[in-house]
Design a protein that fits this description.
14 helices; binds pyridoxal-5'-phosphate; five-stranded mixed sheet; globular; seven-stranded mixed sheet; 391 residues
Length: 391
């Protein structure tokens, strides 16, 4: 894969826009036709032509070509959020009476889809520990039509053996969907391993500047046109030209940013692991990570997100640590320029905090683009506050 060509040239027809280096935001809702027959042909092939920007748009088209090429896929669709990419990767392939097997605790809004929306239409889901092929096989029923994977996930980083799961699914005619947001196509190539549909929250690394919510889905033309003519068009889930342009700009620096994130993470995690205030560090690039071998096989790198289990008896200590951080700032999301943290205890009423439960003491860090020494110093100063929280 020639990433430089993909990111800098592929899909860009400069002559059609005054030889501008940066492609225009083609801010239009609709496209003109000279004859009835031209319009007729467009109606018959909306997936492939410019008719209306809820479907296709030239700015989006440049982006789609790059995203498909990065993933080694035939085609891509770009959505107005990662969540809508999830919705549209599942809905078109299920009907009443069907069954899905999903990794346990997938991304919150994927789980909501499986738990709240799909059961209303007679589609059931079994959650499994997806770390072993045998677990997928055991959970598969005659009516199983779709496997939903997320490898690694974004809190505990469990992996699924992608090639084995994809191979088994294919032998049973089961479609496979993966959330590849953690790795992006630069660190993991799900289609090479046989996965049918790969999605990402483009809000994270692809956008990379915390200024755009978007999603991406790649796969075969057959799958994507099926999605296009059903849920994609009926929900109007596509990205706007402006968001496509922001993502194009983000993509230019994707390899640089990911490398910086990986390098900074590689500098921080061994230090964090040694700190007395860190009871456990969860990071798939750590050789002690339970699935470190599998991570090495199917991911070229790891970085960005890592989870700490802090040593603390009281929730106030964890809060004092989090509140004291100044370079890691508190917010949801990740993948932007800025380092972030999110403590599990923020999702709990204080009185439910149970220090005996390590999950309650988890803090997820996202290592951004700042100087790693500055980030390390910030963690060191904040750790002082773990011990001096008021009783
Ligand atoms: C953020 C996220 C999503 C959802 O993406 P949005 O762009 O916020 O809709 C899906 N999966 C993972 C792993 C995420 O981190």
């Amino acid at each position: 894969m020639d990433i430089s060509y993909i990111l800098n040239q592929l899909g860009e027809d400069h002559a059609s826009y005054f030889n501008a280096v940066s492609p225009p935001i083609v801010q239009t809702s609709n496209f003109l036709f000279d004859t009835v027959d031209d319009l007729r042909q467009a109606f018959a092939a909306e997936y492939d032509v410019y008719l209306y920007s809820r479907g296709n748009n030239p700015t989006l088209e440049i982006l789609k070509q790059k995203l498909a090429a990065l993933d080694g896929a035939e085609d891509a669709l770009v959505f107005n959020s990662g969540a809508s990419a999830i919705f549209c990767s599942v809905l078109p392939f299920v009907k009443s009476g069907d069954h899905i097997v999903s990794v346990r605790s997938p991304y919150t809004w994927a789980q909501r889809l499986f738990d709240v929306i799909l059961p209303r239409f007679g589609v059931s889901t079994t959650y499994i520990d997806g770390t072993e092929l045998a677990h997928w096989q055991q959970a598969t029923q005659p009516n199983t039509v779709l496997y939903y994977l997320e490898s690694p996930n974004s809190w505990t980083y469990q992996l699924q053996p992608l090639e084995a799961v994809a191979g088994f699914a294919r032998s049973r005619g089961i479609i496979t969907v993966i959330d590849n947001s953690y790795c992006t196509p630069l660190w993991q190539q799900p289609h090479q391993l046989g996965i049918d549909l790969s999605l990402q929250s483009a809000t994270k690394y692809l956008g990379g500047h915390s200024d755009c919510v978007a999603g991406v889905l790649t796969g075969s033309k057959a799958h994507l046109s099926q999605i296009f003519y059903s849920e994609y068009m009926t929900t109007g889930a596509g990205a706007t030209p402006f968001h496509a342009w922001l993502l194009l700009r983000g993509l230019r620096t994707l390899p640089l940013r990911l490398q910086r994130v990986a390098d900074s993470t590689a500098r921080l995690w061994p230090w964090l692991k040694q700190q007395p205030w860190v009871e456990q560090l969860i990071f798939p690039g750590d050789p002690d990570f339970p699935q470190a071998d599998l991570a090495r096989q199917q991911m070229s790198q790891a970085g960005g997100l890592l989870t700490l289990v802090l040593r603390a008896q009281r929730v106030e200590q964890i809060e004092a640590f989090c509140n004291a951080l100044q370079r890691f700032r508190m917010a949801v999301s990740w993948g932007g320029h800025e380092s972030l943290l999110i403590p599990k205890c923020a999702g709990l009423p204080r009185q439910q905090f149970d220090a005996a439960n390590p999950v309650h003491r988890q803090v997820r860090l996202y290592v951004g683009l700042e100087e790693p020494a500055v980030l390390q110093a910030d963690l060191a100063q904040a750790s002082q506050h773990l011990s001096d929280a008021p009783l």
